Amino acid sequence: MDAFFASVEQRDNPALKGKPVVVGAMPGTRGVVAAASYEARKFGVRSAMPVSRAQQLCPKAIFVEPHFDAYSEASDTVMTILSEFTPMIEQVSVDEAYLDITGTEKLWGPPMAVAQAIRRRVKTETGLTISVGVAPNKFLAKLASDLNKPNGLTIAPFNEPDIIAWLAPMSVGRLFGVGKVTEEILSKQGIKTIADVQKLSLDRLVKTFGGEGGRSLYDLCRGRYDSPVSDLGESKSVSRENTFQHDTADIEILKSTLLSLSRDVARRARREGHAGTTVVFIYRGTDFTKHTRRTTFANPTNISRVIYDTVVELFAASPICGKPVRLIGVGLTGFGEAVQTSLFETKSDSAALEASEKAIDTVVARFGKKAIFLGGERRFEE
């Protein structure tokens, strides 16, 4: 995604379009920048930068507090779109994913057609732009996607001689694993471009950076990277959290928040083909320390009512019940095959609830999360 958090803010508030937007802490605090629009980046504003520095670099910047629920909703929509083109998706962050489209040509056409179709769908359904890199492996795809931001589409070469020539003029910092420290070491040796690395022998690189690091650089500067796309089925857990603007001990607010979070966790688990045996209650009090409580039962589930009922019990038995809460969350782990959970009396009860929740999934997939709410659910966007 392109400047994801800032782009969502500009989409949701048209008055911010075309202006330098900085998402994160407010001026006068000791916080940092979470994201910056491309208009702000022109002034040197970057994520993780202290807001005081961002304000110095861009005095006319508009500072906006994060709206993580809006970002999560946009991310879920994008990942759902991607899953329609291939089941082989590796989501690496809220705004980035790798897709393996091998074998999908008969359905969607050549890689260029797939990339263009994805970009159109995302723009139409979310109002946001994405940059896509098409390449034979994840390293080259990531590099290609970064070359023509925003709203870019870049296709890398697919044979090694052309890949080597394509990489040659690029900065050595483009290589996976080359951070500031490694880049400084290389720069002191007169190595500033990937072409400079390509000229070095494997022995020289191994002596300088060790066996693993040296071999990695030797392969990467030639475009070699054999890590496969790991599909969503390899995920270990699903969780959602909400940080309150002000600490609250209001039971009704907390329970309605848990209901909404349980619904989101269950829907994502179903979308990714998961069911879990362990429900996790996550909370952070006024001491800023994060705690978890969990319950494990015999059979896995991905039904929001089961998750919600369980997490409410965990909440009621926790030391935080009745005290101010800063953050609250719900998690599901212990993934296995989705079968009837012991919390229901009969298979028909479980089947009916599963059918109703899948019907809700269909509505949400078509119209978005705002289209339907469960009774008592907290509406985060209000």
Write up this protein.
The structure is a single chain. The chain has helices at 4-12, 38-41, 51-57, 68-83, 105-108, 111-126, 138-147, 160-167, 180-188, 194-198, 202-220, 251-271, 304-316, 347-367, and strands at residues 21-24, 33-36, 62-64, 89-93, 96-99, 132-134, 153-155, 237-248, 275-284, 290-301, 325-336. The chain has four domains: 4-66, MutS, DNA mismatch repair protein, domain I; 69-155, Reverse transcriptase/Diguanylate cyclase domain (Alpha-Beta Plaits), CATH 3.30.70; 160-220, DNA polymerase, domain 1; 235-371, DNA polymerase, Y-family, little finger domain (Dna Ligase, domain 1). With 382 residues, the protein is α+β, with helices and mostly antiparallel strands. The radius of gyration is 23 Å and the shape is globular. The strands form four sheets. The chain has a four-stranded antiparallel beta sheet, with helices on one face. Mean pLDDT is 85; it is low at 337-349 and 376-382.
